[in-house]
């Protein structure tokens, strides 16, 4: 689209080379050093334990180092959609996402008006029928780049800001978006393609200089895993990490971090000694592997144990998944598993701290496949962000 290649900016505080698990939304927010309500749910802070060097704002890449490789910029672990709940969480140059019934919609914030409610946004617009027809080469070009003013409904809509490990400055992002829009011939002939050039491709191009789509990458990978291994294959994180790396959609650093993290040993639960407060358990839930935090062990008998657990519960096809406390009976038949997170391989919180962290997130509705699902929640409760 453009020949000019300004320097990318990177955030170094959450470098996966130094982490033992992916950062939570709270850690990402803190790393930006910007006061925000992103880290609050129902007025309660999602507290991440204070970590050394947690505050390290975005900075330019060191001059002696090369710009990141293409697969680093496109890494789906290094690009995170963070839910926002207030106009104060959004700035000019942000890449915003609106959850839709069929697919998510993306745009670039150009400015915020003085009323602190209205935003100027540039986006690749389309209708649902246009998006579907855009799959076909015969019906391409069903979109255009538009600039408009919108008031965001933070109560009724799920709105996210996309945070990048590697990106252009927000000022440069605005310049790139407005530059493309101002070239009227280009903006009115935007060759839309649902899989190769949709609204997210336009937004990522403005932010990074590369047009890619995280949601398309996830969809393709999910389909491949389901086709080869069914529902179990989709929820097998270790296999998913391998396939993500083979398909070039995660970077080397994230792959290595995940390989160590997801290689945790598992132990079949066959007696009451196998389940304790603060443990992470795994079981089949709606035909998918599912992780939960044991809050309390209630009753046991020779055949099973009844526990209070915290997990991301399925609340129906038209409802948000919610972190809930529920009772679960675990039979001693070995089909449920305990994840063996233990020192010295893993730096973990004490059981009481694990339970406290889990309870603080009860009621959360920020579920995202591959980046904030049941296993991410359980690991956040159990594992420290960095090793001591």
From TrEMBL:
The segment(s) forming the LRAT domain are 95-215
The cross-references to Pfam families, in alphabetical order and at most eight, read: LRAT (PF04970)
Organism domain of life: Eukaryota
Query: Polar residues composition bias: which ranges?
Result: 29-46
Biased composition regions of type Basic and acidic residues, renumbered to the chain: 52-66
The UniProt entry, under InterPro entries, shows: LRAT_dom
Residue span of region Disordered: 1-66
Family matches, as PANTHER family: OS05G0310600 PROTEIN, PROTEIN LEAD-SENSITIVE 1
Protein name per its UniProtKB record: LRAT domain-containing protein
Q: What is the lineage of its organism?
A: Eukaryota, Metazoa, Spiralia, Lophotrochozoa, Mollusca
